[in-house]
Amino acid sequence: MAMKFDVVIIGGGWAGCSAAAQLCDSGLKVAIVSEGLSLSVSGSATPYARLAELQRRGVTVLRGDRAVGALIEDGRVKSVHTRNLGDDALQADRFVLATGKFFSRGLLSDKEHIWEPVFGADVEYDPDRSKWYDPDFNKPQPFMKYGVKTSPDGFVLAGGAVVGNLLAVGEIVAEGYPQSDLGKL
Amino acid sequence: MQKEYDVIIIGGGITGAATLRDCALRGLSSLLIERGDICDGASGRNHGLLHSGARYAVTDREGAEECIRENRILRRIASNCVEPTDGLFISLPEDGLDYQANFIAKCREAGIDAQAIDPAEALRMEPAINPAIIGAVKVPDAAVDPFRLVDAHILDAQRHGAEILKFTAVASLVKEDGRVVGVKTSKGDVLRAKEVVLAAGIWTADIAAAAGVRIGMMPSKGALVIYGHRVANMVINRCRKPANADILVPGDVVSVLGTTSDKVPMDACDDMHATPAEVDLLMREGEKLVPSLARTRIIRAYAGVRPLVVADPAGDGRNVSRGIVLLDHEERDGVPGLITITGGKLTTARLMAEMATDLICRKLGSTAVCETANRPLPGSEGRKPGFKDPFNKRAAIGRHGTEIGKMDFEKGGEILCECENVTRAEIEYAVKNFGVRNISDLRRHTRIGMGTCQGSFCIRKVARVLAEYVEASADELVYEYRQERWKGMTPVLWGDTLREAEYMHKVDGNEI
């Protein structure tokens, strides 16, 4: 049976937890899905403590779960499926994508493609794999700039169109694209 | 009077190391000079395959016979470096079975025990292979650790009085009255010897040319991919005319797929790396051998250069030998004091050394006979790890055999590299016995950072320990190692490898 929230946040790293804190303080009913693969907060203890604090403040925390897909209709996300809860698990008015980059599986890749697996968001990257890296380890690496494309308002683009209730924050957003302003929620 | 060696050998790959050992065992005063660390060239950039000779049986009978003889010898004298996995030559539907019949006959003519196996039986022996096979042949291929093999040769040579000078390049050969009498190092020292042996792989041609001796060599690049797990028990070959990506070799805990064969310019040899296009080709073909490779994480890709000798220096590369080439430059070019030993294979290096040392002995008037086929190498005197050995010692015994007695586990028993179980004691042993500048050197002698995590988790700990012994800071050591690993990761930078790259950059990248 589906659970309904005002906002569902996908990703329990720095960006997702910050968003959750801000939104629950403004009185919204919030859920956060955290697989526990964040690199944005050092170690395991600190992110776990942050999630515990959010739980005390009324946020529903789905620990060790991963968003695996979404139902999108008429340019809006209706629900998100998770590995542990199955289809249509989480319904909400708004969704926040905060899944980070490659390590946390916010972005997946094979030899030719890079994609965002939950919403099928448009990803900014070079189609030529030999351009994904700089041969010097210490130089800025192109792959660290890749991420999802967003509209000027910070809404996620999928198939070139704005997904009207899906915002993106943190490292999942490609460099040069706007981060969402959560205040607008 | 300056010291004069009987022999100076240039090149610290398997050919040079085996020649140094042979010379030392025959009582010649010998020095090996190497510009980097051992195995910097082709000896450290290959499959780690101890050939049975089967691959050459159809096209090169002599090479096949050499391989099977040396295969048997190395299993005996280098038991600690060889894993007797056996090998399969599998036929896929598109290969047909015509090649197989001739292949088995030619193997047997060369003395290689090749047995046709029913496909169902082959799949029971090796469930990883492509289930579409229509035929299989079992041969005595094996896996060999080239780093360990070279180290063992160097150690044995040193214990019989030989000297080794690493991290020192040869600037030129020194000639007096038309005779080569020694070498001048890049540091300006002149070292004298009665005979100088060129065993520098593809770099042999340049060193010889500077002394007016022309050796036609053709660099042939071979790219390989390392998968992060051992997916097969045996060496898996394709039973067809040798082609790209048709051998998968298990190497300790990983699997190595290769190779390609492409002519490259000489000036590319100093910076060998695999390209994304080569990786794509290798994967496409390799998945036909072992389908699960498509779902196995790739750790890194690398490339080496085969030192092929062109018989006619003016030729266009058609007349190229992959066999052993021993050149007596006194006879060939009127330049006494200089010998070249090249071509050949990792498997036949001991034989190459024997041939070169026989020639040296003739020149020096020595009647000493070769003993290298009968004496076990250091570490290979029969000590194998068992469950009675303490956990932190087992991996080191597997790598170093009897040499374990020279490591101080009382003080240095703490495991630093978790994947390969390398302790401080083993690091100290490597620093003391082999000379180490950085973590990449240490890796060759201990397998540190070669496991599935590629040093992601341990490298800072290792760097702090190594910094106590070498003239480099822990940060410098980490950077050098990361850059070296990065070179191998970039051609395979997608999927889990890309995930690992982000982790590495956030932990160790200076830009983040």
Please outline the helices and strands.
The complex is a heterodimer of chains A (185) and B (512).
Chain A: E1 3-10, H1 14-25, E2 30-34, H2 45-56, E3 60-63, E4 67-73, E5 76-82, E6 86-97, E7 108-109, E8 114-115, E9 123-124, E10 147-148, E11 155-158, E12 161-168
Parallel strand pairs in A: 1-2, 1-6, 2-3, 6-12
Antiparallel strand pairs in A: 4-5, 5-6, 7-8, 9-10, 11-12
Chain B: E1 4-10, H1 14-25, E2 30-33, E3 49-50, H2 61-77, E4 82-83, E5 87-91, H3 98-109, E6 115-117, H4 119-125, E7 135-139, E8 142-144, H5 146-159, E9 163-165, E10 170-176, E11 179-185, E12 190-198, H6 204-210, E13 217-227, E14 235-238, E15 247-251, E16 254-258, E17 262-263, H7 276-289, E18 298-310, E19 320-321, E20 324-328, H8 329-333, E21 338-343, H9 349-364, H10 391-400, H11 409-412, E22 415-417, E23 422-423, H12 424-434, H13 439-446, H14 459-466, H15 474-489, H16 495-508
Parallel strand pairs in B: 1-2, 1-12, 2-9, 5-14, 12-21
Antiparallel strand pairs in B: 3-8, 4-8, 5-7, 6-7, 10-11, 11-12, 13-16, 13-17, 13-18, 14-15, 15-16, 18-19, 20-21, 22-23
Helix pairs in contact in B: 1-5, 1-9, 14-15, 15-16
Structural account:
- The complex is a heterodimer of chains A (185) and B (512).
- Chain A is mainly β.
- Chain A has one domain (3-184): 3-Layer(bba) Sandwich (FAD/NAD(P)-binding domain).
- Chain A is built from two helices and twelve strands, in the order βαβαββββββββββ.
- Chain A has helices spanning 14-25, 45-56, and strands at residues 3-10, 30-34, 60-63, 67-73, 76-82, 86-97, 108-109, 114-115, 123-124, 147-148, 155-158, 161-168.
- By secondary structure, chain B is of the alpha+beta class.
- Chain B has three domains: 4-42 and 147-216 and 313-364, FAD/NAD(P)-binding domain (3-Layer(bba) Sandwich), CATH 3.50.50.60; 49-144 and 218-309, 2-Layer Sandwich (D-Amino Acid Oxidase, Chain A, domain 2), CATH 3.30.9.10; 391-508, no CATH class.
- Chain B is 34% helix and 22% strand.
- Chain B has helices spanning 14-25, 61-77, 98-109, 119-125, 146-159, 204-210, 276-289, 329-333, 349-364, 391-400, 409-412, 424-434, 439-446, 459-466, 474-489, 495-508; strands spanning 4-10, 30-33, 49-50, 82-83, 87-91, 115-117, 135-139, 142-144, 163-165, 170-176, 179-185, 190-198, 217-227, 235-238, 247-251, 254-258, 262-263, 298-310, 320-321, 324-328, 338-343, 415-417, 422-423.
- In chain B, a hairpin with a 4-residue loop joins strand 22 and strand 23.
- In chain B, helix 15 runs antiparallel to helix 16.
- Classes of the chains: A mainly beta (185), B alpha+beta (512).
- Chains A and B meet through strand 7 of A and helix 7, helix 15 and helix 16 of B.
